[in-house]
Design a protein that fits this description.
about 120 residues; 4 helices; five-stranded antiparallel beta sheet; Yope Regulator, Chain: A; globular
């Protein structure tokens, strides 16, 4: 039996992410080694191993967020994730302010067509 995967995410960042996710009781944090949230097969937030948070936002909100927080689109494994913004650490520490963006992200993925789930035998 294998033991649960351990992540290398800084504990303070993981705590802040958990605190943020807990602001909406409809959202469940998933992933032990790579924490994320998803709905209907669509991921909408992701905390990478260095503790950088990515949020998936609709186009208008995404452009506003990039300008307001002087940040960039999120990059993972060398690829730019074009619907995801990189959340600055200063904003990650401000759960009250960031909560609005998590909610926008959640509402956005609710509008996406659910991904088909693989059939299990």
């Amino acid at each position: 039996m294998s033991s649960p995967k351990k992540n290398n995410i800084p504990a303070d960042k993981l705590d802040l992410y958990d605190k943020l996710v807990s602001t909406n009781p409809k959202i469940e944090r998933k992933g032990a080694a790579n924490p994320y949230t998803s709905l209907n097969g669509h991921m909408f937030s992701y905390l990478n191993s260095s503790g950088s948070l990515a949020l998936r936002l609709p186009k208008d909100e995404r452009e506003e967020f990039l300008k307001k927080y002087k940040t960039t689109l999120f990059e993972a494994y060398g690829a730019v994730m074009k619907e995801y913004v990189t959340v600055p650490d200063s904003l990650l520490r401000n759960t009250k302010k960031l909560q609005r963006y998590l909610q926008l992200s959640y509402e956005y993925v609710k509008t996406l067509k659910p991904k088909p789930t693989p059939k299990r035998a």
